[in-house]
């Protein structure tokens, strides 16, 4: 702290250049924080997925239907604790551009499979007794102002009912809290039996079977047994753990980790040259001033440290500001709605600080070494 005034004065010798360099570093580390935060957040979410839950879909495609007769056969596999189903409904309320994650299911079994969902037992009983009943996530109900007892029209771009309409009417019989599974979790459930009876086509088919196993250590064995049941049948199955299913869905978007690292790497590589150029110009403009410092008794090493500290202060301050802005963006309602309850992992801030130190050293060492090697006579003579 003894020489902080010298470092600060050198850093702000050319205010405009320093400000624009800082802005560039802030933007670079804002991008780093957002991309790596999302990347790390996905990794954390994947690591927290349930290991005792399996998803059965048609081998050809997740959107192809499987016979409902598979349900009892899957339930008979040793090691299976509970089985439910999902049939994609593709619903929307009032505006087709605002879809609702709606699925037809067996609610009684579904809430045995998804143990972390919080729901009152009386709501499950009401669902079983009400043919047109639906259970709605609390967040979705709050979004549209729905309450228990409401009768709501839900449109669908896929399923026509037997009356020839794409609008179905349902009665809300209960709500549930599925926040443990994130914002993208299906939050609108209708009775599969009613849906199957009322639709014009696709009768007797569903898109997923969700299986809860008794012992997570037996998950792979149960997966193999389920697929073996339907080998060489008209609709063969693919059984995956929750982790494997999430991975396959993410791969449809591309290699998130590679994309994030490639973009950040390119930005930081460019930033390295920008910061190095700033420091080189700063040292070049202060050649005589640095020579005066040496004349006053500053050693070569001390001058080198002063220039390096200047680069470190520039990079760390701007990088910290960029990471802080990225952390605030993660708390924004828009991003929370898109990715769920994400917050920037602490490791991202640590990585950012480490990269900022590295950029400061690599970009600041050449001009710092140049300052160390200055000859006092030549520098004061302008040679």
From TrEMBL:
Q: Show the stretches that span the lipid bilayer.
A: 20-38, 258-276, 303-330, 342-365
The question of whether Manganese is a record keyword is answered with no
Report the residue ranges that make up the MacB-like periplasmic core domain in this protein.
19-228
Asked whether the UniProt record includes ATP-binding among its keywords, one would answer no
Q: What is its main location?
A: membrane
Q: Tell me where it resides.
A: Cell membrane
Which UniProt keywords are present, listed alphabetically?
Cell membrane, Membrane, Transmembrane, Transmembrane helix
Q: How does it sit in the membrane?
A: Multi-pass membrane protein
Please name the Pfam families in this protein's record.
FtsX (PF02687), MacB_PCD (PF12704)
Its domain of life? Bacteria
Q: Which residues form the ABC3 transporter permease C-terminal domain?
A: 262-376
UniProt-recorded name of the protein = ABC transporter permease
Native organism is Steroidobacter gossypii
């Amino acid at each position: 702290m003894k020489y902080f005034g010298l470092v600060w004065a050198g850093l702000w010798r050319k205010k405009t250049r320093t400000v624009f360099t800082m802005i560039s570093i802030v933007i670079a580390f804002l991008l780093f924080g957002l991309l790596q935060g999302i990347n790390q957040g996905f990794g954390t979410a994947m690591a927290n997925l349930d290991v005792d839950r399996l998803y059965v879909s048609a081998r050809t495609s997740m959107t192809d239907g499987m016979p409902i007769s598979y349900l009892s056969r899957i339930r008979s596999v040793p090691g299976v604790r509970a089985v439910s189903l999902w049939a994609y409904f593709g619903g929307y309320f009032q505006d087709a551009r605002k879809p609702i994650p709606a699925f037809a299911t067996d609610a009684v079994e579904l809430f045995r499979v998804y143990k972390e969902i919080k729901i009152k037992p009386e709501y499950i009983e009401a669902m079983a007794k009400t043919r047109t009943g639906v259970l709605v996530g609390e967040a979705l109900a709050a979004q549209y102002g729905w309450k228990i007892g409401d009768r709501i029209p839900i449109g669908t771009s896929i399923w026509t009912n037997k009356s020839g309409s794409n609008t179905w009417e349902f009665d809300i019989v209960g709500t549930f809290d599925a926040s443990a599974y994130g914002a993208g979790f299906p939050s609108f459930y209708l009775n599969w039996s009613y849906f199957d009876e009322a639709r014009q086509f696709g009768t007797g088919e569903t898109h997923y079977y969700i299986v809860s196993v008794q012992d997570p250590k037996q998950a792979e064995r149960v997966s193999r047994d389920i697929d073996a049941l339907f080998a060489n049948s008209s609709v063969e199955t693919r059984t995956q753990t929750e982790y494997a299913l999430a991975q396959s869905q993410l791969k449809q978007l591309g290699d998130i980790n590679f994309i994030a690292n490639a973009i950040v790497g390119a930005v930081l590589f460019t930033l390295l040259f920008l910061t190095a150029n700033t420091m080189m110009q700063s040292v070049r403009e202060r050649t005589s001033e640095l020579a005066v410092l040496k004349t006053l008794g500053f050693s070569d090493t001390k001058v080198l440290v002063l220039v390096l500290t200047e680069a470190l202060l520039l990079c760390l301050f701007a990088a910290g500001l960029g990471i802080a802005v990225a952390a605030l963006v993660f708390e924004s309602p828009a991003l929370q709605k898109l990715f769920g309850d994400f917050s920037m992992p602490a490791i991202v801030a640590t990585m950012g600080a480490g990269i900022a130190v590295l950029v400061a050293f690599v970009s600041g060492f050449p001009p710092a070494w140049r300052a160390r090697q200055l000859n006092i006579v030549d520098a004061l003579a302008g040679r």
